[in-house]
Sequence to fold (79 residues):
Amino acid sequence: MIWTTTPETSRTVATGLAVLAWTVLSCFALRGLSLRPSVFIHNTAPEIRNDIRPEIHIPAPATPSGDDAPDNVHPLHKR
Fold:
């Protein structure tokens, strides 16, 4: 429309200005031009505290009899 209605000597300038105006207006439209201030709401998850107490129970090995029995193995005392 701009190309056909503009005189032949200034068609390229008029078309360039139209494209520039279209680009600027499209940027505002796609950006969502608003005059209200931006509000940031930070939602954080509640802090959950888990008490993890790993307990490992290893039974004492069977005491071998004889001369090859180690002297540092003691049976566990149950309470």
In short: The mean pLDDT is 76.
